[in-house]
Design goal:
- By secondary structure, the chain is α/β, with parallel strands linked by helices.
- It has a domain of 199 residues: Rossmann fold (3-Layer(aba) Sandwich), CATH 3.40.50.1100.
- Helix content is 42%, strand content 15%.
- It has a six-stranded mixed beta sheet with strand order 3-4-12-9-10-11, with helices on both faces. A five-stranded parallel beta sheet has the order 8-5-6-7-13, sandwiched between helices.
- Strand 6, helix 7 and strand 7 form a beta-alpha-beta unit.
- The longest helix is centred in the first third of the chain and has 15 residues.
- The two termini are 35 Å apart.
Length: 431
Amino acid sequence: MQYYSTNRQVPPSTLRDAVFKGLADDGGLYMPERIPQLGSDFFTGLHKKTFREIAFEAAAALFGEDIAAAPLRHIIDDALNFDIPLVKVSSRIYSLELFHGPTMAFKDVGARFLARMMQYLTRNENAETNVLVATSGDTGSAVANGFLGVEGITVTVLYPKGLVSKIQEAQFTTLGQNIRALEVQGAFDDCQRLVKQAFLDKSLRAQRTLTSANSINLARFIPQAFYYFWGWAQMPKDSEIVACVPSGNFGNLTAGLLAQRMGLPLKHFIAANNVNDIFLKYLQTAKFSPRPSIPTIANAMDVGNPSNFARIMDLYGNDHAKAAAAISGYSYSDAQIRETVQRVFAEAHYLLDPHGACAYEALHEYLQNDKEAKGFFLETAHPAKFKETMDGIPGADVAIPGKLQAFMRGKKQTAIISNRYEDFKAFLLSS
């Protein structure tokens, strides 16, 4: 399989080159040259298969030309060794709980898959690889833990100083070994900009082997398609099914759209935003207008210039009308998020995290106008990861699970840098 750039200004790349470049040389994001179609037999028997069986069949369709069945199955079985339950919240709304992995966030799926794919692709090489990752919350912890102890790979996590919850921060700043954390004096968009600039800096790349573990990396975002198949398989089939995605950098939504293109019969997608609603404004106006992000209690969605917008536009041929017909958008303030958490817990005894609250409310609002459908939303992180926020919501008391407590006992190890690219480059070259 070859992979092309969304900017289409450079020749296609192999899987290995696309994974390790992260970003194409023309600044575009990689996409597969063709999207394989899964036959009707696959979907007919889907409800009888385990998550890992489904993931392997989807992965084989996508990556089978480059990775043999045995090592690909090993990657799947080793990376996805945790449950993803579908929980009924109301008569028409279900929660796909993606927070049962090692760092209790959905990004464990993509990050663990990526780490093991990189191990496989470099199994006969000796060069040191530097993984750069910008995080507004859970990406850093998932990537850091996914790559922890992997020989030949050093991970550098950039995060906005003071804008990540204490538990999230502890999950990637206390690990040591091959994991480094940089507190950037700025917003998440500054962190993401620094990573992108590094990839486009030819003089830096001549001296360091760089790759990305953000959702700009195709091997990070594509595996997220697997759990859409799994969620659909568990849903009751007496109605059409829609999916709602809490959206920040839009890798998660793009993965769902990819699954749909592979044949998954989801009727519609809903993008739930906080007040950083750049994509919603695009759906409403046909104008994409990035702006500085605004800090919210749903911090993983605090993105003012979502990278994966380019992939969504590529899927729809830059046709606004087609994208707007396939995807609905909603946005919610911090006050509305808090109200949703409190109301759903009181009514259904189900505790949402702030991101899941956005998705629940968007799905609930959408279903008011579609009486025939049922839907599932992605509950992307355990509520305890946002304990400071949750404790301020009446009735939303949450205990910290043991695996999160273990991170909190570690010693913080970070360096502080400005949001100037020259300072970031100097750090990379000095280490």
